[in-house]
């Protein structure tokens, strides 16, 4: 399910780190989108957020759990097993929002369960997932935990930061293991998220995305994101100053957030969230889902074949972010 441009990678390291500026369509000056992690998000909590996004012209991506019977006890994440939830996310799709893969279930899924989840995703939404973000603690994650890093030094730093709890803990890429499914990822998913940064311009932090990593061959193309994991972080990142800089740089932001994390209080949307979104919506930005944005970048310049030196550089940048903020 690789991009149609996957056979024309940019291999020049200088081109990868100093790519030509993207000309956004229709004279737009920058791009902004969101991947919404669905953890703990109910229909009642999510509906006001998405009604506001739609009203202001934003079309973004929402992570989906197709739903199985293996969710952890007490887990409040809504899945497509809930008829009301399924009706709501289908209505979001009809309004132009993208549905992204976040795993078959909030709980760890074996190969057959993951396959069932992917099949259900396609049945519900009509296509395989274009974009994916892995649920942090699901043990079927691929190239996750300390396997996100290439050098032994960087892995050591990561394992110190995480107190070793993610050392060899994920098995989705281990052939023969009951959790193995990375071949299905290669066949059915185009883009998978990895690194996250405290930088409004995601393209500035990771200028070569979407990129291919030959050491992790079962992901067709990787993308990075901007840290907005809860309301406080989202609003800090989306400050007026940062909005203006994103526009001036002609950049692109893929904000990664959990709209279930403090965006509503007593049923009311955060007023600052409403104000900043309205301000952003009045700028000449391109507000499309994550998959649409990544497809456009790949078409404009071709995806990058990541070199080892480039990967070490972005790993170090991410480790500095993780050491400071601790987010995934």
Structural overview:
This protein is of the alpha/beta class and 328 residues long. It has a single domain (13-325), classed as TIM Barrel. It is built from 12 helices and 12 strands. The strands form 3 sheets. Strands 1, 2, 3, 4, 5, 7, 8 and 11 form an 8-stranded parallel sheet that branches. It has a two-stranded parallel ribbon with strand order 6-12. Helix 3 links the parallel strand 2 and strand 3. The two termini are 26 Å apart.
What labels would you give this structure?
12 strands; globular; eight-stranded parallel beta sheet; alpha/beta; disordered N terminus; 328 residues; TIM Barrel; 38% helix; two-stranded parallel ribbon; 12 helices
What is this entry, summarized?
The chain has helices at 13-17, 43-55, 83-94, 111-125, 152-161, 182-188, 202-205, 231-237, 240-249, 271-281, 290-301, 308-325, and strands at residues 30-36, 61-64, 98-101, 131-132, 191-197, 211-212, 221-227, 252-257, 264-265, 268-269, 285-286, 304-305. By secondary structure, the protein is α/β, with parallel strands linked by helices. The chain has a single domain (13-325), classed as TIM Barrel (Alpha-Beta Barrel), CATH 3.20.20.370.
Topology:
Blueprint: H1 13-17, E1 30-36, H2 43-55, E2 61-64, H3 83-94, E3 98-101, H4 111-125, E4 131-132, H5 152-161, H6 182-188, E5 191-197, H7 202-205, E6 211-212, E7 221-227, H8 231-237, H9 240-249, E8 252-257, E9 264-265, E10 268-269, H10 271-281, E11 285-286, H11 290-301, E12 304-305, H12 308-325
Parallel strand pairs: 1-2, 1-8, 1-11, 2-3, 4-5, 5-7, 6-12, 7-8
Antiparallel strand pairs: 9-10
Helix pairs in contact: 5-12
């Amino acid at each position: 399910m690789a991009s149609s441009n996957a056979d024309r990678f940019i291999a020049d390291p200088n081109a990868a780190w100093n790519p030509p500026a993207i000309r956004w369509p229709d004279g737009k000056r920058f791009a902004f989108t969101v991947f919404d992690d669905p953890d703990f998000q109910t229909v009642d909590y999510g509906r006001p957020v998405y009604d506001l996004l739609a009203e202001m012209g934003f079309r973004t991506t929402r992570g989906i759990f197709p739903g199985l019977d293996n969710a952890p006890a007490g887990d409040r994440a809504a899945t497509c097993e809930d008829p009301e939830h399924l009706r709501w996310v289908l209505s979001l799709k009809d309004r132009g929002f993208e549905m992204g893969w976040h795993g078959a279930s909030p709980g760890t899924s074996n190969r057959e369960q993951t396959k069932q989840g992917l099949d259900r995703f396609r049945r519900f939404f009509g296509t395989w997932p274009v974009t994916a973000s892995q649920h942090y603690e699901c043990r079927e994650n691929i190239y996750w935990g300390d396997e996100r890093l290439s050098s032994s030094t960087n892995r050591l730093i990561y394992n110190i930061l995480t107190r070793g709890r993610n050392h060899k803990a994920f098995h989705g890429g281990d052939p023969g293991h009951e959790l193995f499914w990375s071949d299905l990822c290669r066949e059915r998913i185009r883009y998978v998220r990895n690194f996250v940064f405290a930088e409004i311009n995601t393209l500035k932090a990771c200028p070569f995305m979407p990129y291919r990593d030959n050491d992790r061959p079962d992901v067709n193309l990787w993308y990075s994101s901007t840290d907005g994991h809860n309301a406080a972080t989202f609003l800090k990142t989306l400050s007026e100053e940062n909005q203006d800089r994103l526009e001036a740089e002609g950049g692109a932001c893929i904000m990664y957030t959990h709209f279930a994390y403090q965006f509503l209080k007593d049923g009311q949307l955060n007023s600052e969230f409403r104000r900043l979104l309205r301000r952003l919506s009045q700028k000449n930005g391109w507000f499309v889902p994550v998959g649409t944005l990544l497809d456009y970048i790949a078409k404009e310049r071709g995806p990058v074949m990541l070199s080892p030196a480039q990967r070490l550089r972005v790993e170090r940048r991410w480790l500095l972010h993780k050491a400071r903020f601790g987010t995934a």
